[in-house]
Amino acid sequence: MQNALLKKALPHVVALLFFMAVAALFCLPALQGNELDQHDNVSWKGMAQDAFAYKEANGHFPLWNTHLFSGMPNYQVAMEGKTIVPNLPQLFMLGLPKPMNFFFLACVCFYLLALTMGALPVVAALVATGYAFSTYNPVIIAAGHDTQMIATAFLPLLLAGLLLTYHKKYWTGMALSTLGAYVLIGANHLQITYYFFLIALLITTAYAVVWIRNKEWKHLLLSAAISLGAALIAIGSNALMLLTSAEYSNYTMRGGKDLSIDESGNVNLTKTKGLDTSYAFEYSLVPKESFTLLLPNAFGGGHSRRFEEGSTIASDLMEKGIDQGNAEQLAQGLPQYWGGLPYTAGPAYLGVLIVILALWGLFFAKGPLRWGLMAATLLGLFISWGKNFALFNLLLFEYLPLFNKFRAPSMAQVIPQLSLSVAAVLGLSQLTSGHWTASDLLSKKILAPLGVLFGLLVAAWLFQNYGASIDAQILAGYTDKNGSDEFARLIVSSLEKERKAMFGSSLLRALLLTLALLGIAWAYLKNYLGQFWAVALLILISTAELTITSKDYLPDESYVSTDEYQQKNFAPTALDQEIKKDTGPHYRVLNLSTSTFNDAITSYHHRSAGGYHAAKLRIYQDLIEKYFAAGVNPTVLNMLNTRYVIVSDPTTNQSSLINNRDSAYGSCWLVDRIAITNDRAATLQLLGETDLRHVAIVEKTTGLSTTTFEKDSSATLTLTRFDNDTLVYETSGSKARFAVFSEIYYPKGWNVYVDGKKTDYVNVNYVLRGLSLTPGQHRIEFIGDSMTCGNGMDNDSITCGERHWFDQHCAYISYGPSLARRLNADWMLTSVSGYGMSRSCCNNDKTIPEIYDYTDLSQCQIKWDKNKYKPDLISICLGQNDGKQKVEIFTSTYLKFLRKIRKENPKTTILMLDSPMAKESFKPYLDSMLRVVFNRFNDKNTLMYLYKRRYGNGCVGHPDKLEHEL
User: Fold this and answer.
1) Is 517 helix (H, G, I), strand (E, B) or coil?
2) Is residue 634 a contact partner of residue 663, using CB atoms and an 8 Å limit?
3) DSSP 606-631
4) Which tens digits make up the pLDDT trace of 514-569?
5) Are 828 and 916 contained in the same domain?
6) Which of 72, 171, 672, 910 is the most exposed place for a label (fewest CB within 10 A)?
7) Residues 707 and 768 in one domain
8) Does one domain contain both 931 and 884?
9) Whether residues 931 and 820 fall in one domain
10) pLDDT value for 962
11) For the chain, what is the domain count?
12) Tens digit of pLDDT for each residue in 22-61?
């Protein structure tokens, strides 16, 4: 029995070791302790540095990031508790160093998919390595698109679950589908996830047609229910991440826009959904560029590749009298890439063997899967062409839900990467199934698809136009002052020769590898090679060819030591150090010496008015386009409290500092009057024409009635606390006034409290916050929802919003004391406001577990004598003030608190409650965390009760008197 199990497991163990070995050799510098220097990863670390510093000090990530674009939600940068399940991707990757872990994960997931399709282990191993090491993966890894790579690696896992379900293996299909959907969505690359669901839709449709023809209604409904159930579970498990992203996207560039700026700088009203088509379709392949799936260097590889010494260009130039040194220098300065993308690091080459095997799978495999794969392949190609297949893609952009939220159509090449790899499993399985003979292999039927493919490629090589968009720049750049473009045309002509040579070289390589495949297949079918050795030889050829090609796009030079990585990317410059001497709580820095709005390194060190993020707030993008694109507007800089500007001297290329700009308005200020505009376009237009230090611009939709304010020389407004999620101001004055706060307006999540009362604030100056103030002294707090015991319940005599917060505060008639009096029990009440389990709101620096032992909760000087009295029941109703946060932090703190209570009160019943005030958006999140705690605590004398509805009819969302009596 043991020998049988070992024999059965051995091929899979060997396959896993093979994947590990190939990944290790490919990523050897990572095993030696070096780190990949990835642009986007460096940018993410720059934009996230503030959040990690905050977490180190406070134990959790903030909700607001102060270092990007003058402020934006931090949950699009670094987020607590994205899911309610442990980090499974890390578990799957076995703790391997990056990027070795990515390649290993992709191999394993595709290997599992191939096995579920009934493929032999050697067949599965061949195509799995092809899928993992296709050149698009090293390209995106080198760029730092880690989440895209993880999502790509998980695609086969989810497809495996769906195929198992469709082939009536319901239980394993349901388990694998749920797991695959969970980790794919959790990878948090929604565009790749979206593309997968397009693939799944086409494959499912192909299967459904067969089920309907065969009247397999039960199987159809069961498969649909399992697939839908898996999707819902996965979505629910990732709900926090998805809901916050969905909420945020409505306020970003991806949510559309309601105004446009023409070439003259005039602002006009408009209405669009999703991204602008010009921006969304910017990275579009030209259709013939899809040949790179089979011919890696046909279009020159990537933009960074240059012609080597001895090129045709240099030879042609020398024939025209240019000396060798200058000719070689000019030639080596020209890019090899001649495709349609504005920039690319490399092609999406799948490997010749994989593509040829896929062709056999699509043409000769039986069953509905091949039709779904064929449709998916065509769809992926069409989408990747973007603006170059505009009729099709504009229809999708306009009518396909969510399609207009995504950009870079070239990313859709991941669709044929998956579909053709799956088809290759079908093709190789056809070859090894025993149904083909050597004569079949050489028949017209088998060779015809290959003949058509290579006939098309040869025709393209011979007759296609080798011109490229960059040629116009060359013609313009090398035309002499007399208008002669002879020299420029020579360069372009030489470039076209090189391009044809590159295409032909790739074509020859593909032909030779195809002949090698045919030769090995023929030898196998003639029984000159056994099945294992034939496939093993194909594995060797395919893996060697792909890894050698892919290594060009992730070379050893991409790795640096950890120290060098930190020094190169994040070491502060002398200017950074000079700025950091200013320890003021609130000011911003604008770095004009770099690509200001594509730079996150400044955000690593400072609160930047610029930054880098794929989903900027729409209002800030509008501000950039209007007041930064054609030159920086100083008034806008002032209202953003930009105290320091880093500039570059174009003659020396040295950066210098415009420091301590006294003209900056500060963190907040009082204005003399309000200018009311009719719409958002007028508001944005007026910014550059207004003295914003004394005038605030507000749209009429805000409903503000007072527009001018009496002079009050005694009026003050001061920032007293600056924290990512909490801003506190003190103000005084004898007259009514209007305050402007140099904080970016975002209506979701920010609330303002004046003297403890929740108050409405308005959007001013297009991107900032404003607030009307009554005469007198006030404390202004911009924070999240604050919750208080007994607060807001007693509004019988003084209604909500009148006088002071404590006028509606009466703990005596709140639930606890009222119940005690009903039971004729003794009671004592001690309370604090805004405290939570693992973190608190409202400027509180302690939590309930930290103050639980004290009788005087606000002072924490007198401890309870717990030996004198043991309660029969202890109820815990915490979590509301904690807000959304990392599950591990909340649950571990809660468990520690429960164990402390149980140790002190071994016989007491403990009752865990959720919040009676929790909103619909927060309650599922809180309840899921409490269930985790309850299950982990696993105590027979501990109960849990979750409220059936919300009790929030009192002031500021608190329970009222009647609800307390219930």
Assistant:
1) helix
2) yes
3) S-BSS---SS-BHHHHHHHHHHTTTS
4) 999 999 999 999 999 999 999 999 999 999 999 999 999 999 999 999 889 888 88
5) yes
6) 171
7) yes
8) yes
9) yes
10) 66
11) 2
12) 999 999 999 998 999 888 888 889 899 988 888 887 777 8
- What's the CA gap between 409 and 389, in Å, rounded? 11
Name the strands in the sheet holding 588-591, side by side, starting at the edge strand that comes first in the sequence.
588-591, 642-649, 654-658
Contacts of 669 (CB under 8 A, 6+ apart): 693, 717, 739, 740
Among residues 135, 134, 131, the alpha carbon closest in space to that of 111 is found at 131
Q: In what order do the strands lie in the sheet containing 737-744?
A: 668-671, 737-744, 768-773, 762-764
Question: The CATH number of the domain where 779 resides is what?
Answer: 2.60.40
Tokens standing for residue 267: 């602002």
Residues in the chain: 966
* 672 and 755 together in one domain: yes
**Residues 743/727, Cβ–Cβ less than 8 Å:** yes
Contacting residues for 561 by C-beta, under 8 A, at least 6 apart: 33, 34, 35
Sign, CA dihedral 448-449-452-458, equals negative
Q: Assess contact for 934 and 944: CB atoms under 8 A.
A: yes
Tell me whether residue 705 is in a domain: yes
944, exposed or middle or buried, with CB in 10 Å at 0-12, 13-18, 19+? middle
Range(s) of the domain holding residue 721: 668-783
Task: Determine the Cα angle at 460 with ends 302 and 426, to 5°.
Answer: 80
Q: Are residues 733 and 839 in the same domain?
A: no
Indicate the average pLDDT of the chain: 87
Phi, psi of 239, rounded to the nearest 5 degrees: -60, -40
Residue pair 929/891 in contact by the 8 Å Cβ criterion: yes
Tokens, residue 856: 């005087």
Rg, C-alpha atoms of the chain: 33
Tokens standing for 334? 């020209």
Which amino acid appears at position 344 of this protein? T
Distance CA 270, CA 684 (A): 14
Q: Are residues 719 and 841 in the same domain?
A: no
pLDDT in tens, 263-297: 777 888 888 777 888 888 999 999 999 999 999 99
The pair of structure tokens assigned to 71 is 């402020």
Q: Which residues of 545-571 are buried (b: 16+ CB within 10 A; e: fewer)?
A: bbbebbebbbeeebbbeeeebeeebee
d(CA 956, CA 802): 12
Dihedral over alpha carbons 505, 508, 513, 519 (to 10 degrees): -160
Task: Classify residue 728 by its DSSP letter.
Answer: E
Q: Give the predicted TM-score (pTM) of the model.
A: 0.78
CA atoms within 13 A on the CB side of 947: 21
In a domain, 465, yes or no: no
For residue 402, what are its two tokens?
């969510």
Judge if 952 and 814 occupy the same domain: yes
Q: Which amino acid is at 49?
A: Q
Supply the CATH number for residue 939's domain: 3.40.50.1110
Q: At what angle do helices 680-687 and 618-627 cross, to 10 degrees?
A: 40
How far apart CA 365 and CA 358 sit, in angstroms, is 10
Q: Establish if 753 belongs to a structural domain.
A: yes
Q: Tokens 């910014």 label which residue?
A: 687
